[in-house]
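Annex B. Sample input.
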Amino acid sequence: MRELMAAPAPITIFLLPGLEGTGRLFARFQAEADGSLDLVPVAYPPDRELSYAALEERLRPLFPQDRPFALLGESFSGPLALRLAARGPPGLVAVVLATTFVRRPAAAPIAALRPLAPAFFRLPLPRHVVRLLLAGFDAPAALVEDVRAAVATVRGSVMAARAAEALRVDASEALRQCPVPVLILSGKEDRLVRRSSPREMKALRPDAEVHLFDAPHLVLQRCPRESMVRVREFVLRKARERMGEASPPRDALRSADLV
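Annex B, continued. Sample output.
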């Protein structure tokens, strides 16, 4: 009688969110999962101004010690994912950097508006700003409203503090020294993050794999299926290379809120 072999357990990927920090905007990306990945969206406190260093300390205890996992850092969280990877946590097999940066994230005109950030984030996010900088002019109305609703749950001062953190961060060395393989996803029509950012990251990390989408800043939301295909193939391939065929335990995490 042929022995039945247990299916491989899914590889956990911690999804570190963009500037709004809620994790809610990963829903479209998560909906494309096929069970081979255990996607764990992380939410940052909506009412506390936490630096990259403070977020790093809060995230580290979430990571499993006995099974492989990966990190996906979207936009604001790209430098955070690299800082966490630099610690060499056991089981880390890959880092995915989605529409993000390691330094000087914004184009000069946007960076020049930094002094206005506290006032800007106190107001409801205008729909035309969502389309211009994040979702694209042809974005579905539902996505625009999802972005506005997520941002509305976060205190304006917290959003401004995160923007200030991103504008002064430099994670170049963390990328260069990252102990695991790196996948870079970026949108060709990104109007928020400098379009030279993927090239700069590739120069710092020549062995990184890069894929450019015909999309605006919110690549995971506008191209969820294509993004999932790229992420799934990369992470599973790197997990096999790093961990062999051993199957991790099945006690996968489901969500992670930092309170």
